[in-house]
Amino acid sequence: MPKKKLKRAKEVAVSTVEGAEAGSALLSPLGPIGSLGGGLLGGLAGFVLADGERITPIDMIAIPAFEYGQVRSGQDPTFMIYIKEGEMIAPVVKTDFMEATEEVMPTTNTRTKKRKLSKWNRYVKNKKNHIRFKNGKLNLEAMAKKGGFGKKKGRKK
Predict the structure, then answer these.
(1) 40 near 27, Cβ under 8 Å?
(2) How many angstroms separate the CA atoms of 117 and 89, rounded?
(3) How sure is the predictor about 112, in pLDDT bands with cuts at 50, 70 and 90?
(4) Are 40 and 101 part of one and the same domain?
(5) Which of 22, 35, 76, 110 could join 28 via S-S bond, C-beta 3.0 to 4.6 A?
(6) How many contiguous H segments (helices) and E segments (strands) does the chain have?
(7) Number of Cβ within a 10 Å radius of residue 35
(8) How many separate domains does the chain show?
(9) Which domain holds residue 101?
(10) CA distance 65 to 93
(11) Is 157 domain-assigned?
């Protein structure tokens, strides 16, 4: 599973668990059944409120929410938006829940380490090592011979 999908699944799971805990705590004065019902309702609310990007699994058509009843009764919506499979849908404005979680859990910027260049890449990058043809292109074979990057011993030709 890709890291983004795994991270998204973890976020949804955390939101669901937090909602279940809050719902259970709110309805616990009603006894064990109230606590169980609150946990179920809170978990469902946490799952639904897990704001963030969504990737559409299939082609979809979006319509304005207030026209849903009209569509069910047979009328056409004023406009429709076609969403292709694999497109990402993200919230435009941050919701209260998203702002609250940012205040509680500040994001840390983690830089990815820059990959170390190989000996050959470092050699080619250095301008004083360049050997060019008359037309201006790099003569990589001559550069490899001069820099000691010829064929390895023991390899088949």
Answers:
(1) no
(2) 37
(3) confident
(4) yes
(5) 35
(6) 6, 4
(7) 17
(8) 3
(9) 1-51+96-109
(10) 17
(11) no
- Amino acid 25 reads A
Q: Return the amino acid letter for 59.
A: D
The predicted-structure confidence for 53-97, as pLDDT tens digits, reads as follows 667 778 878 888 788 788 888 888 888 888 888 887 776 677 676
Question: Which two structure tokens, joined as six digits, stand for 87?
Answer: 């497109």
Amino acid identity at 53: E
34 & 47 share domain:
yes
Paired tokens of 23: 């719902």
How far, rounded to the nearest angstrom, does the alpha carbon of residue 111 sit from its chain's CA centroid?
Answer: 16
Q: At residue 133, does pLDDT exceed 90?
A: yes
Q: Tell me the per-residue pLDDT of 8-35, one tens digit each, with 9 for 90 and over.
A: 667 767 666 676 676 667 667 777 776 6
**CA separation (Å) from 117 to 48, 78, 121, 129, 149?**
46, 56, 6, 16, 15
DSSP 13-65: HHHHHHHHHHHHHHHGGG-HHHHHHHHHHHHHHHHHT--S-EE-SS-EEE--G
Q: Which residues pair with 88 in a beta bridge?
A: 55
